[in-house]
Amino acid sequence: MIIIMLGAPASGKGTQSAVVAQKLGIPHISTGDIFRWNIANNTPIGAEAKKYIDKGLLVPDELTINILRDRIEMEDCKDGFVLDGYPRTINQQESLDKMLEDCGKSIDMAINLVVTDEEVVRRISGRRMCKCGKAYHIVTYPSKKPDICDLCNGELYTRKDDTVEVANTRLDTYKKQSEPIIGVYREKGILVDIDGHKPQDKVSEDVLYEIHKYSSKQGVV
Ligand code: ADP
Ligand code: ZN
Asked: Does this model's pTM top 0.90?
């Protein structure tokens, strides 16, 4: 099954994609995570991507599309995958359709996590991350011990682009470049809106319910 997770920055795409990927036993592909891995490991791709990410801008399509293509051509993607943070431009969306079409595949569902602008900025400005991928919020979703991950005891850190200033640019970038993609998938009839304001577990329940509904209709998993 091929699932696309859509939504504003900090709408919960990463968290929910991880849940879905684990449940369905397919890879969770986050272009943001791929870029951050490259930055942490000082690769040429990382150096290029960092120029844009730190400012809240999108990494240019050419680079992003190539990275995505290489990733989804890997063996573990043959039975499907969850895409988190991709596509983010109409150009990326069209090229993804073409890539899938070339190998006889298509997107099953696009899940749109809906949150307000105020919530996006509130979440980003209090977000704390762990290397293992777990995200916390200093006020609404704190770790049990301050600055220590509940899952792996790792030390929590703040992403460089998780400041109020960059959050506003990211929101702006999202509205201008990424939001139009929602309309494209809605027209194709594969979009499902999910209320992203509910507690994480409840959102997961809603997402998994929609996937289950789709799968039983299609006879696929
Ligand atoms: P969030 O959804 O919280 O904004 P991500 O981890 O998905 O975080 O992305 C972080 C940053 O990585 C983005 O602001 C952007 O600069 C870059 N990025 C991630 N995915 C893409 C993409 N598909 N196209 C262009 N840039 C991307
Ligand atoms: Zn952790």
From this structure: yes
